[in-house]
Prior knowledge:
The complex is a heterodimer.
Chain A: H1 7-26, H2 29-55, H3 63-80, H4 84-106, H5 111-131, E1 141-142, H6 153-181, H7 183-193, H8 195-200, H9 205-231, E2 233-234, H10 236-239, H11 242-255, H12 261-279, H13 287-301, H14 305-313
Helix pairs in contact in A: 1-2, 1-6, 2-6, 2-9, 2-11, 2-12, 3-4, 3-9, 4-9, 6-7, 6-9, 7-9, 11-12, 11-14, 12-14
Chain B: H1 3-34, H2 41-59, H3 63-86, H4 94-116, E1 129-132, E2 135-138, H5 139-161, H6 163-173, H7 175-180, H8 185-210, H9 218-232, H10 237-254, H11 264-278
Antiparallel strand pairs in B: 1-2
Helix pairs in contact in B: 1-5, 1-8, 1-9, 1-10, 2-3, 2-4, 2-8, 2-9, 3-8, 5-6, 5-8, 6-8, 9-10, 9-11
Amino acid sequence: MSALRTxxxxxxxxxxxxxxxxxxxxxxxxxxxxxxLVLMLVILASSINIIxxxxxxxxxxxxxxxxxxxxxAFYLMLNHQVHFVPAAVVGGIVSSxxxxxxxxxxxxxxxxxxxxxxxxxxxxxxxxxxxxDPFGGATGMFFNYEVYNGYGGSKNAxxxxxxxxxVVALLCAVSSLLIKKSRFGLGLLAIREDQDAAQVLxxxxxxxxxxxxxxxxxxxxxxxxxxxxxxxxxxPGPAFDLLRSIEALVMVMLGGYGTVAxxxxxxxxxxxxxxxxxxxxxxxxxxxxxxxxxxxxxxLFVTAGLxxxxxxxxxxxxxxxx
Amino acid sequence: MNIDAxxxxxxxxxxxxxxxxxxxxxxxxxxxxxxxxxxxxGPVIAVGxxxxxxxxxxxxxxxxLGLVIVMLxxxxxxxxxxxxxxxxxxxxxxxxxxxxTFSVNLMIIGIGTVLFSTSPRALDVSLGSVRTGAVTILxxxxxxxxxxxxxxxxxxxxxxxxxxxxxxxxxxxxxxxxELMGINxxxxxxxxxGIGIALAMGSGSLLATLFSFTILSGTVYEVKSFVIVVLGxxxxxxxxxxxxxxxxxxxxxxTISPLPVGxxxxxxxxxxVIILLVRPTGLFGxx
Lengths: 322, 287
């Protein structure tokens, strides 16, 4: 727990918490919506980084846990009138449980085979939910406005959702730091570098990988529950959108693979950039092209990402920038 | 269940299976030679569709003649793509090459949607049809299958009978050893990538003669190709053809089975994940 006494931990808390407090202080709805989205992307990118950046296992279809958490929580809120906080927690736990069960066989695969399997799992779940009547099938499920009455009207519910996502984002970032700085995290980094050598040194790769996969599924599950509670409608397409998964991978790469701050920086920069490209008149129709081109430049020339690059360039910063 | 419907759906499934197989072959060849999963596979198929459409509309070219030009274009595009996006990261971990090819995917879709919008297009080809009993076979499908078979045989002839093809297999087997034998591995990798893209664009052109399409249509075939490639064994071109036939048959039979059509993808992807877990070398894998 010595990680909790480092300047980086306090910096992270103050910066992320400070940005999160801004819309609460000035009460601006549009700012709240912007920051909600960034915090959600921070959660998605950070949790992918926990499995991918630390262990080297590219979970391409990680969005499946976002969708699952969303669906489970939505189902509980709609059909059993569960309050949204316990419903979201159940959503997160179910996501983790499924990750645990899936992880045992799937994490035996390595490299591209694992990446393909996670895409397959996302597609299986998406097509299953599309046909699963209790979850509303292809049309999904939606709230009546009465559901929000329990939270003081829909306007208040939006604020509740915002507080919730802020708390989850902070939890996710702190967990990411604690894992990286723990003995367990060192084991994961060793698996990333050379799994066979790590095993020889006394690390149990199978157990570590399944455990970290379980943890990394918890936060997207919560984020999905909160996002679809706020949305009021859940459909298979947006819930299991592979593109969003890949976007989160891009954010991790942009910020810095395997660092704690990287996915946070990456999510913020990516979202600003996307918003700029879409609203800018010269780029709006070419925004996908520009995004692809930037991604290629990063992949080819700045492999370590923004935070990784800073850490390489200024070794002194390493103490303050994990 | 009546026998006419059964035979019709089997024939239909088989025929589309060959084309699925051809579409997957490019993906599996690239993976087999350089361990790169080409995430731009779908958009490349869509480019093949639009290329043959433009050639037919603007130059009045017969689609089957256009196919040859499209495949040559594909070869050049693929070699270019290799040097721009893949060569620098060829030895990096999977994530890097996955993202590099995905960035190409984004760029193609980005330009494609601006140029062609996402409204559906169709190529007007009609070659009549053959009827035997209850089974009607469209001429376009028959020709497309024939071309798919010729392309597979051609690929095999190239890989096993020509010097360049043997070099491709040598590089796939062990790049360092191949270089020690005097093979220029960079060019062989670029050539393999080019052939993979040519096959993908060719299959796109054939699909364009059968169905209407948009710039986003490639994604459907890309995901199908993943399933097929895993079924047939990653890196095994003949396995891809067989895998394509299996998926085609499965889809054909699903239309007459009591199971609602919506469940077909659940089964397809379920099989995909299970095969990855139980037999990652594929059903028809050699090793």
